[in-house]
Every structure is written in C-alpha cells, then in structure tokens.
Amino acid sequence: MSTQDAMSWLEKNETGSIDRLMEWLAIPSVGTDPAHDGDTAKAGQWAADHLQASGFDVEMCETGTADSPGHPIVMASCAGSDDYTGPHILFYGHYDVQPADPIELWESDPFVPILKPAEGEIGERIVARGACDDKGQVMMFLEAMRAWYETSGAAGGGVKFTVMLEGEEESGSVNLERFVEDNADRLGKTDVCLISDTGMLGRGKPAITYGVRGLAYTEITLTGPDQDLHSGLWGGKVPNPINELVKVLEELWDDDRCVTIPGFYDGVRELTDGEREAWRGLGVDEVAALKGIGLRPEASVGEKGFSFIEREWARPTADINGIIGGYTGPGAKTVIPSKASAKVSFRLVDDQDSATITKAFFAWLEERTPAGCSWSFEDHGGGAPATCATESAPLRAAAKAIEQACGQQAAMIKSGGSIPVAGLLKDSLGLETIFMGFGLEDDRVHSPNEKFELDCFRMGARSHVALIEQLKLLG
Ligand code: BES
Ligand code: MN
Ligand code: MN
C-alpha cells in the first residue's frame, strides 16, 4: 500500500480509465440546455457511482427551488485513516459541459468520444465536448482515488476528503452560493479547496494556478421606434437603435484601451514588481500563442502599459460577446430596426465586485441614453475573482506531488478564466483554493473539437496519486 502501487495500478489500468472517461463523456450533460436536464442529472449520478465504488460516502443534493430546480450537487466524503493528521481537502469539479454548437464545425460527434492517434508534437488525445473542461480533469482525480482504493483498501488513500461536484458551472453557478451558505458547517470544516479545471504553462510544463478572474455578464437592449421601419423613408430622420448602440459601446474604451466606466478600476490591486519579474521569468511565448490562433505579432493589443500575460492575469477587461439586431438573413433588406441588443461582459480582478461593476455599467449607459431611445437591462450574474495564497503547507504538498509525478517543477501561474466557486469559498468561508490543472492552450475548451491529451491525463492522474502521499507527510 504505497504510492508506487497506486502509480502501477494507473499504468496497468489505463485502458480502463480511458474507457470510463469516454463513457462519462458520452452523456451529453449540457447544463444550460433544459432539453439535456435528464442527461445532466445522469452525468452527476455517474460520478457519484464512481466515487462510491472507490469507498466514498455519497449524497446527491438537490438545488434550486420547486419552481426552478437546479442541477444536483454531488457531495461525497471519506473520513481519512485514524492516523491521518493532514489537511481536510475539499475537491471541487463540474460535470456539466458547454453546448456543442456550432455543431457543423466538429470533425466527429461531440458526444461520441474518440481516441485520436498521435501526430507530430501531439500525442494520443480524446476528442469530445468536456474532454478537458471539466470531465477529463475531474477524471484524473477520480481515477487517482480508485487507484489508491484498489491498492490500499482505504478510501481517498487515507486522506480526509470532501468532494463537491457541480452541474451548473458553465451556466454561472447560480445555485451554488445558496448551497455553500446552507452547507457552511460541513464545508467550513475543510481546510483548503483543490480544483482541476485550469491549464498548464505549456506542453509538458505543469503548473499551479493561484488566481482566476471574476466575471460580470450583462445583456442590454436599446429600443427606438415601436416598429421596424423602411430605411429610405425613415433613415436619417429618427434614431436607428443599432447605430446608436454601437456609438455608445464605442465609448467603453479610451485610446489606451482602458475601460471608461467611472470607478471601474476602484480596488484593482496593482501588480507588484516582484510579480511582474516572476511572470517575465516564465518565458511565455507571446508570438507563438498568437500564431496558434492565426494572428501575427502586431495583433497583441490591449490595455496600454501591460504585457500580454499581465493583461490576462492581472487586468480587468470589457468585451462585447454578441450584438443582436436588424436584418441578418440572406441578401439585402433595407430596414431601421425597432431594437438592438448586446451581450457585454467584464472580466474582473481582485478586489472588484461583480454586482458593483454591473450597476456602474447600467448607470453609465443610462447617462448616455440616445435621444428618443430607452434601455432595458438584464443581469446574467457572474462570479468573484480569486487570488489565492502562494505559500501554504497544502500548496507545498501539491507542488511536491507534481514534481514527484511529472519530474518537473510546477510553475506558479494565474489564469484569465473564471471559476466562481473559488471566490465564493474565499469570501464566505475564508477558504483558499489550489488550482492543479493540466489543460493546454490548444485544447479548444468551449470550442468545436475540444480535446484532452493522454499525456496531460497521465500527468494529472499521477500528480493526484502523489498528492495523497504528500498530504499524509504533512501531518
Ligand atoms: N474551466 C473554465 C475556466 C478556465 C479555463 C480557467 C481555463 C482557467 C483556464 C470554466 O469551466 C469556465 O469556462 N468558466 C467560465 C465561467 C462562467 C460561465 C461563470 C468562464 O471563464 O467563462
Ligand atoms: Mn471548467
Ligand atoms: Mn468552461
């Protein structure tokens, strides 16, 4: 009953592990789509069964209200061995996935997972929606748990765990805040949160992420005339809501690409020289990153005074995610539309607050209401940013586990993405999070042909196996 036994188990049973992951991926748990509610529940149950088979006590917790039920949260736990004195770990992951569309851009069915053979620099990989985000990454943890249980007979390998798997991460974790409040006693007994839902520094370069950005997501609609109009008869005489909307939105950024909403930067933590220096030392290849998405070096644009990586990891941004309005069918149609909408979101950093930013944005729009038009606003929620400790006993254990499992030191990085639970746990329970993720920049998360490489899966599963040993040594 040793780390070596569990590592050998992983190696010998890899085909089984991959098969199990493919079975899970075949359940189309598109959490945002009511047509997939049954599948989403099924994917949660699948994970619950897996944990139970590895000796965990498992519970499916309903969320939401009778009128508007949410997806269940899988809660599982194991007590740890009698002599375990290390930290109580809260493992969080999500079993919901993004919608597959645009479906026509997939080279294979998003919910018929396939194993693609190695080509060039890329080894074998699993292609399916959720392969990396987040089923493939949660599976590294699940199989590490299985490996320890099968080889030692102890659930969690003797470490004390609480596991919380959510089915609404991709739709903004709307029922999670309430759940965390209601379960504050239970969750508050854990010492640190562990999440595998982020990326590495690069191929073969494992990393620990110590911060994610927050998010505020809105939808705004500008209405002008109460009907669509002939643009020849009315154009130039009355407001065209699309023209007016884009004129207002253009004012969101100044010439330095700073966001112009008053108070937007209030509370934003300034980068320290030490952090800037450390990030420069990571050797992020900006030109290669741009090339990977079909861009030339001059395409590195963003807030003045900050580097490529600083703009992702340390600075807030505003983005128009979609503009809806007018005629978009084939051919020409001369029309002044009655209304126009936009989906506008903000990525936030500590210590900005999602609700405050949304309120400030709506007030900013009100002040710029085009003559003859009116606004309506919708708040699609968001999540808090989280910058976590870069030094703690469990974090050192995670770093050692990665080194032991991958033969490489973990880089300390941040990410521009958002994982709402981390900010929530920090604000409501004071819990720190360690993000130990194994994704790659080209995994196409949220896009067609999402993939997860077996090399990454292996590194992740092995790191979680090694983490058990390192946590026990902390005691
Ligand atoms: N796992 C991602 C976030 C992520 C990806 C973090 C890569 C770091 C590296 C997560 O599932 C996600 O997509 N989050 C959403 C949050 C939202 C729906 C509230 C996001 O970032 O847009
Ligand atoms: Mn995710
Ligand atoms: Mn995601």
**Hetero groups:** ligand BES, manganese (II) ion
**C-alpha Rg, in Å?**
24 Å
Fill in the CATH topology of the largest domain: Aminopeptidase
Which whole number gives the mean pLDDT?
97
Quaternary structure: single chain
Question: Tell me, what's the shape?
Answer: globular
CATH classification class of the largest domain: Alpha Beta
Helical content class: 25-40%
For the record, the count of structural domains works out to 2
What does this structure look like?
With 475 residues, the chain is an alpha+beta fold. The chain has helices spanning 3-12, 14-25, 37-53, 135-152, 176-182, 184-188, 231-234, 241-250, 273-280, 286-291, 308-313, 354-366, 393-406, 420-429, 454-474; strands at residues 57-61, 73-78, 89-94, 114-116, 125-127, 161-166, 192-195, 207-209, 211-212, 214-223, 229-230, 317-325, 335-336, 339-348, 374-383, 386-387, 411-413, 433-435, 451-453. It folds into two domains: 3-213 and 385-472, Zn peptidases (Aminopeptidase, 3-Layer(aba) Sandwich), CATH 3.40.630.10; 214-268 and 316-382, Alpha-Beta Plaits. The strands form six sheets. Strands 1-2-6-3-7-18 form a six-stranded mixed β-sheet, with helices on both faces. The two termini are 18 Å apart.
